[in-house]
Specification:
The complex is a heterodimer of chains A (384) and B (368). Helices cover 22% and strands 30% of the residues of chain A. Chain A is α/β, with parallel strands linked by helices and 384 residues long. Chain B has 368 residues and is of the alpha/beta class. Classes of the chains: A alpha/beta (384), B alpha/beta (368).
């Protein structure tokens, strides 16, 4: 028996992150010069001593499976626990894709039962934050709650974009409003739940039977629990938290890492963010380069030009006289000389020809990959 | 399939690293911004399809053990074989072996149990990115007793003096192994020998009270053995002293050298690092340098190598220097021709200047 196990929802398509998610699942999208989005949640688990984690995958899982497959970076290659990848399956009774967050857990109840935990932590692989889940669990126990939902204070004007939890003075939740026009509160759900396993089980079975349900925690299960008068508490988290659901917010979260003190500490010795390691040599900067307010990962070669407020992943090559500003360059990209990139996200393996000029706009950065570059070349008759 | 077992013999290497090996065996001296000297040999062995590697180490091995761990970073954490750190003796009262022969003799079981019939023996100070598959094939094809890997050097610097020189005939059969400093054909310390012959020669050396396997078992018996030499032609360096360490590190700032050593078919493997990518802050001014992950730079860095987690504060200047892991260079400090060991702190405004030939070395954990 285990006290608490984690169920990590990593099957989402992340449509609003397209084209970054055209070929990979959202949790596998590269982030912060070295990581993938899911590393933050997995590292939170590892650092919170939650060593049994079921990762529910569905959409385009190849790279995600490869990334978490050996379990080592998070110390989850143990005899007794670790990461179990839970993909949709068929059985004697048939089988189906996961139709919602609650359905995904419902279909893997046998995994939870096998571990027989007291509590189940439900988290997702699409947020950037550093959080000690044990504190959340403690609060849950102190309140003797059925469910505890982690919340974060958001600016009032942004509250209508979130699922808002209305609480009494003891943080007990009496109402959940999905994207309210006139919010009564500015405590937004972070999509992180601790359930008593027996309560979760009962409600998942109940929800599965309901044909009208969309089988979603936020939309169906939580409202039902509230309706039945169960004890739901909110736990307020006061750190950096960012939903990287859109290209703009993905870009913003990356840019946050370049600020002096953004609330995230990737280097913190007691809350490291772990990821798969590579054997790239340290990066090389030539005598003709200027680099400021940027992050550069191993294996990269900067021959020249100016790199400001940008993030270069592994094995990026920047040729002479380039100007890269506020851009995110994914691994194995080559930037040809005299290119200008401003507020651009360049996807993995793109080969940018010399003299290319690309600029994003105020609302959103430009995203490019090899396919798009090839197409725009054809459209312009091979000239740029 | 014919296979080799690997031995990294650290018991008979040169030791002129002075302060750099106060706290560690020279095999675990940091090199090239992210690596330890032993990584090159270890990677080359693994890249030669060797899956059993024994390390002979007698003292100061905490740092090396920390680095090697289970061998996972070199894919040497295996069900069968893998990484073996072998001790020199077992307090056996009948054991009369001496020198590095102790390791061979007292660990006979390791060799006997191995399914491989050949042994590749190497030290840690020959720096290259290669594999020994071709050398092994060559060894088999020539039906040699022993095959010595050699390099032809263009520049006979004094730090090459300790290395044996090879005199071979036109067909590569070695006639003599000498200390002739003018001979540019240098023995790299890497050689292949059949397991059976190795164990026989070990016994013989011990019976005659000898102390060094290569010198007494092979060099002195060259006339009775069929010894071939295999020439390695790629980028390489011999690192055996503070001066050669400094020179060969800074040589990596030549882009061509850097690419030849690191951007080959095989990457040099090393211990995983969990630090963020190197961070450049607003006053960073970095020219012609190599920086590892975890560095946070807000000062000026020129022609230097920064290992992981180095902090360079505002207004600090680093020139022609090597700064190892987790060192902090505080505001306004000035370093030129300096080697900074791990965990060092250079305080505000401090000035340290060494010479181009003799760099100034700051010991591990010192605060200056």
């Amino acid at each position: 028996m285990k006290e608490c196990i984690g169920m990590l929802l990593a099957g989402g398509e992340g449509r609003r992150l397209s084209p970054l998610t055209n070929n990979i699942a959202k949790p596998a999208v590269p982030f912060g010069g070295k990581y993938r989005i899911i590393d933050f949640t997995l590292s939170n688990c590892a650092n919170s001593n939650i060593h049994t984690v079921g990762v529910l995958t569905q959409y385009n899982p190849l790279e995600l499976h490869q990334h978490i497959g050996n379990r080592k970076p998070w110390d989850m290659d143990r005899q007794d626990n670790g990461i179990t990848i839970l993909s949709p399956y068929t059985a004697k009774t048939g089988g189906d894709w996961y139709s919602g967050t609650a359905d995904a857990i419902y279909q893997n109840m046998h995994f939870i039962e096998e571990n027989d935990p007291e509590y189940v932590l439900i988290i997702s692989g699409d947020h950037i934050y550093q959080m000690d889940y044990q504190k959340l669990l403690n609060e849950h126990k102190v309140n003797n709650a059925d469910v505890t939902i982690s919340v974060i204070e958001v600016p009032w004007h942004e509250a209508p974009r979130f699922g808002i939890l209305n609480t009494d003075e003891n943080m007990r939740i009496y109402e959940f409003e999905e994207k309210p026009e006139k919010p009564k509160n500015n405590l937004a759900s972070m999509g992180i739940y601790v359930f008593n396993w027996d309560v979760l089980k009962t409600y998942l079975i109940k929800d599965a039977k309901q044909e009208t349900s969309s089988h979603d925690f936020g939309k169906d299960v939580i409202p039902q629990l509230l309706k039945d008068g169960m004890k739901l508490f909110a736990y307020q988290f006061n750190g950096y938290w960012k939903d990287v659901g859109t290209i703009q917010s993905y870009w913003e979260a990356n840019m946050d890492l370049l600020k002096e003190d953004c609330g995230l500490d990737l280097q913190s010795s007691n809350w490291r963010i772990y990821t798969n390691h590579t054997d790239d040599p340290p990066h090389f900067v030539s005598s003709r380069a200027i680099v400021k307010k940027s992050m550069i990962n191993d294996g990269s070669f900067v021959y020249g030009g100016e790199i400001t407020e940008s993030i270069l992943f592994r094995n990026v090559e920047v040729e002479d006289s380039c100007n890269i500003h506020q851009s995110i360059i994914h691994p194995n990209v080559k930037v040809g000389k005299n290119s200008i990139l401003e507020k651009v996200i360049v996807m993995e393996g793109t080969n940018i020809p010399a003299g290319t000029i690309i600029r994003g706009n105020d609302e959103e950065p430009a995203v490019i990959n090899q396919e798009m570059l090839n197409q725009s070349y054809v459209a312009m008759g091979g000239e740029k | 399939m014919k296979k080799m077992v690997g031995v990294i013999n650290l018991d008979s290497e040169c030791h002129n690293f002075q302060d750099l090996e106060l706290f560690r065996n020279s095999a675990s001296i940091p090199f090239g911004g992210r690596y330890r000297l032993i990584d090159f040999t270890l990677s080359n062995l693994v890249n030669s399809d060797i899956t059993e590697v024994a390390i002979f180490i007698r003292n100061k091995f905490r740092s090396l053990l920390d680095h090697l761990g289970t061998g996972e970073n070199w894919d040497l954490d295996r069900r069968h074989g893998g990484l073996f750190i072998l001790p020199p003796d077992w307090n056996d009262p009948n054991d009369i072996s001496k020198g590095d022969l102790q390791f061979f003799y007292n660990n006979r079981d390791f060799f006997i149990r191995s399914r491989s019939n050949h042994v590749l023996i190497s030290g840690s100070q020959f720096i290259a990115n290669t594999d020994y598959k071709e050398a092994f094939q060559f060894h088999i094809d020539r039906n040699a007793d022993v095959t010595l890997v050699s390099v032809q050097t263009e520049e006979l610097t004094s730090d090459l003096d300790p290395y044996f020189r090879i005199h071979a005939d036109d067909l590569g059969w070695v006639q003599e192994i000498s200390n002739d400093k003018r001979n540019p054909l240098i023995f790299t310390g890497v050689y292949i020998i059949s397991k059976e012959l190795l164990l026989d020669l070990v016994d013989e050396c011990i019976a005659y009270g000898k102390e060094n396997f290569f010198r007494d078992g092979i060099k002195e018996k060259i006339n009775g053995l069929k010894v071939q030499t295999y020439r390695y032609r790629g980028y390489h360096a011999f690192v055996n002293s503070v001066e050669s360490y400094y020179r060969h590190n800074l040589n990596l700032l030549k882009e061509d050298a850097y690419r030849q050593l690191f951007y080959k078919k095989h990457r040099i493997r090393t211990k995983a690092s969990n630090m963020q990518p190197a961070k450049y802050e607003k006053n960073a001014d970095v020219k012609h340098s190599i920086l590892s992950d975890g560095c946070i730079v807000n000062g000026s860095v020129e022609k230097s190598i920064l290992f992981k987690g180095v902090k360079v504060k505002e207004g600090a200047t680093i020139k022609n220097s090597i700064v190892m892991q987790y060192a902090t260079i505080e505001a306004g400090a000035y370093l030129e021709n300096v080697i900074i060991d791990k965990d060092v702190r250079i305080t505000r405004g401090q000035r340290l200047i060494g010479s181009g030939e003799k760099p100034f070395v700051v010991k591990k954990r010192e605060v200056l």
